[in-house]
Structure formats: C-alpha cells, structure tokens
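Quick one: structure for this chain?
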Amino acid sequence: RIILALALAQAILGSQMPMYIILGGIVGQSLASSACYATLPISFIIIGSMISSPILSNLMQSKTRRFGLLLGNLAGLIGSLTSFLGIFTSSFEAFLLGSFISGTYMASQAFYRFTATDVCENQFKARAISIVLSGGLIAAILGPSLVKISLTLNNTEPFLYSYLAIVILNCFGPLILYNIKSQTFSKSFEE
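Got it. Here's what it folds into:
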C-alpha cells in the first residue's frame, strides 16, 4: 500500500515538474523586463532544490519520512500559489520566489524512492524503487497534457490556469502522502 501511494504521488504530484519546465521559460519571458532573464525561474527551482535537499534529508532523519515529504508538498503548494500570484499580478519577482520555493518540492520528490526502500525487505527494494519511479512515466504524460488543456481554456491572463492546475495537484498531496508509514527512524540512514 505504501509503495502504491508513493507511485501515485510520483505520478500526480510529480506531474508538476514537467509543467514547471515547460512553462518556466515561457512565463519568465512574458514577465521579465528582458528576454535574457526568461529561464531564471527554472534556475531558481534548481537552486531551491539544491538548498533544501540536505535540510529535508536531515528533517527526515530526525523526524519521519512522512513529515519531510509532507513539508516538501507544502512547499510545492506555497510555491505554486506564489507563482500563480506572480502571474496574476505580472510580478516577475513573485514568480521567481514561487519558483525557488517550488524547488523544495522537487527535492522532496527525489526522496520517494528512498522511502520505498525503507518499508520493504532487501530482496524487494529494487522492485519497490521501480514501481515508484514508474509513476514518473505517468507524470511525464499527465503534466504536459494538463498544460495543453489549461492553455486551451479561455483565461484573461496567459498561463494562469496552468499554474492553478499545479496548485490543485499539490492539494492532493496530503491525501496521498498520509498513507506513508510514519517511522521515527529510517533503515536507509542506518545502512
């Protein structure tokens, strides 16, 4: 059940990452004062991920994996709301801040496969990782499809509905991640 929840999280929550990659540069170009800054939002996602990854790792070690994953999901929600607000107000700076915060979700998503290894016996670890990562295949289809659908909707502000879709995806996070067993220690950290 935990492995399937992680695969579902990878599929649904993970679909926001291709959406950020597809839209980041386009929205950046539409909001930035110069086209030279168009890809800064994507860079901010990566920087946010780099900074938050060791912090999340330490939190997952001292608290629980579920706590760290839920915190990453919360950052994804806050980041997508901030990006949404940046688009709505035509603020490149707010959009960059949202991208940076969303990088924390990107970092937490990388821990899904490690969480899978914590809850199964050694002989099933490779299979558990494969099942969780297979959710990424669904995310690779779902994310771009949501972008395509959201762009066909009639909205006054371009890309606004695409980021609303990311906000909605993040709202599913607690429902999915609640199924992750909350352990006070992690086998992976001990090995």
